[in-house]
Amino acid sequence: MLTMAGKGTAPAGLLDAGLVRQARAAISGVAMNTPLVASRCLGGVTGQPVFLKLETLQPIGAFKLRGAANALSSLTPEQRARGVVCCSTGNHGRAVAFAARRLGIRATVCLSHLVPEVKVAAIEALGAEVRCVGRSQDEAQHAADRLAREEGLTDIPPFDHPAVIAGQGTIALEILEERPEIEAILVPLSGGGLIGGIALAAKAMKPSIRIIGISMARGAAMHASLLAGRPVEVDELPTLADSLGGGIGLGNRWTFALCRSLVDEVVLLDEAEIYRGMREVLLGERLVVEGGGAVGHAALMAGKVKPCGPAAVIVSGQNAPIEQVLAIGRGEPVMLGGMEVKG
Ligand SMILES: *Cc1c(COP(=O)(O)O)cnc(C)c1O
To answer: How far is it, in rounded angstroms, from Cα 162 to Cα 308?
Structure first.
């Protein structure tokens, strides 16, 4: 666990809580205001009321639609006419494809071969052009950079962009308006767009709130970067939480500074803990979830986060391969790049 001291002030710059409030108007009609429901099982485990923010119910099955819709809505007519490109671990690409189709914009999505087939197919079904390149998020990003340069497409980054961060931050407005008593928010953490936006908006509304990030131990780029005091690279490895894979970019401009100043704690989970979290969401909450969306449950079940008051858990996505979900529900081991995982 990484606990950080001297918190509280957002880094200065173009990004502030006002941008999150503007994003809310821009995305309404594309992304939904998702339900915040009482957890059926986490209250007993933690002794505190725990609420689940069901981003799994977004039209694309994950929260990323918020950031993508906000970023696309802020393009100029020229940019819209030329089209957009992005790289993605799957859900951002699907979000960009969905929002682009709504607005009649041409979209190209660059994916690495680590992205599950179910996510690739969903992006193609939304009418986007898919390019599968390399074995890491970095290679996919380079392909997107090249297309942006050569074809004049506008790159929509998966997390390190003010409009994307502000879009994800709208989740915090919804949570605290509905349940102002919430004292901690547990957030799946990869590149930090989700937690950065949530922390920015939540701390502006309620400075005492605790924001806790949760990543998989296998390839936790933001955690390693916070420890090092600057963005660093980590090896990208197969994980049940595939949507949390990838680096934060050595040239990170926004999310590293946001996490360093506003995130209170970062917790890491092993694959067996993520497996048990997915199983608990499935069997206990009766909800389909992907590994990256189950890390809040996993951290609470493992006792790695102990809330002192009412807490909200971001259940961030549901787009796991269905065979994986069914196997975990039955308690069977699942294979991850040659490694067997079970609870
Ligand atoms: C992208 C993603 C995350 C992490 O979001 P970041 O902004 O990269 O930290 C968490 N859960 C799911 C399901 C995702 O798709």
So the answer is: 32
pLDDT for the residue 21: 96
Residue 189 Cβ contacting ligand 1 at under 6 Å = yes
- The pLDDT of residue 139 is above 60: yes
76-100 pLDDT, tens digit each: 999 999 999 999 989 999 999 999 9
Cα–Cα–Cα angle for 274, 278, 282, nearest 5°? 170
Nearest CA among 1, 5, 44, 48 for reference residue 264: 5
Closest CA to 97 of 117, 122, 131, 76: 122
Backbone φ and ψ for 260, nearest 5 degrees, come out as -65, -35
Q: What is the distance between the alpha carbons of residues 40 and 138, in angstroms, rounded to a whole number?
A: 39
pLDDT for the residue 205: 97
pTM beyond 0.85: yes
In short, whether 61's Cβ falls inside 6 Å of ligand 1 is no
Q: Residue 226 C-alpha to ligand 1 middle, in angstroms?
A: 18
Ligand 1 pocket, residue 191 CB under 6 Å: yes
d(CA 241, CA 223): 15
pLDDT tens across 157-192, in order? 999 999 999 999 999 999 999 999 999 999 999 999
- Nearest CA residue ID for atom 13, ligand 1: 317
Cross-strand pairs, 186:
212, 313
Q: Which of 196, 179, 236 is nearest to 37 (CA)?
A: 179
Contacts of 330 (CB under 8 A, 6+ apart): none
Amino acid at position 99, single letter = A
- What is the amino acid identity at position 270? D
Closest by CA position to 109, among listed 146, 140, 64: 140
The reported pLDDT for the residue numbered 6 is: 47
Q: Is the shortest distance between the CB of 223 and ligand 1 below 6 Å?
A: no
End-to-end C-alpha distance for the chain, whole angstroms: 21
- Please state, in angstroms and rounded to a whole number, the distance separating the CA atoms of residues 16 and 165: 10
Phi and psi of 52, rounded to 5°? -110, 125
How far is ligand 1, taken at its centre, from the CA of residue 336, in Å?
Answer: 19
